C-alpha cells in the first residue's frame, strides 16, 4: 500500500525539489511505496497546525524537516 507523504512549504517561498527527491530516494532504497505531494497554499498548510517549514507529513503526523532531514530520520518517519 502506498503511503501519502505531504511536504509543507511556506506560501511565500518556492517549493524545494530537493526534499521531495530525498524522501523518494529513501523510500525507494527501503522498498517503501510513497506518493509525495508538495503543499504550499496557506489553506492547505494551516490544516496541519504547524508554523515550522518545511515540514513532512506522514500518516497525518507533522515532522519538522529541519530536525528530521537525515536519511536515518526520514526512514524512521516513513516507517512510523
UniProtKB/TrEMBL annotation:
One family name in Pfam for this protein: Thioredoxin_3
* Gene3D superfamilies named in the record: Glutaredoxin
Q: Which SUPFAM superfamilies match?
A: Thioredoxin-like
UniProt source species = Flammeovirga agarivorans
Write down the superkingdom of origin: Bacteria
What sequence ranges are listed for the domain Thioredoxin-like fold? Answer: 5-78
Q: What is this protein called?
A: Thioredoxin family protein
Amino acid at each position: 500500500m502506498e503511503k501519502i507523504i505531504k511536504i509543507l512549504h511556506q506560501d511565500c517561498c518556492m517549493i524545494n525539489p530537493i526534499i521531495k527527491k530525498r524522501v523518494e530516494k529513501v523510500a525507494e532504497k527501503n522498498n517503501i511505496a510513497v506518493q509525495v505531494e508538495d503543499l504550499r497554499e496557506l489553506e492547505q498548510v494551516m490544516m496541519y497546525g504547524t508554523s515550522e517549514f518545511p515540514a513532512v507529513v506522514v500518516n497525518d503526523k507533522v515532522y519538522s524537516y529541519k530536525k528530521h532531514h537525515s536519511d536515518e530520520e526520514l526512514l524512521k518517519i516513513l516507517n512510523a
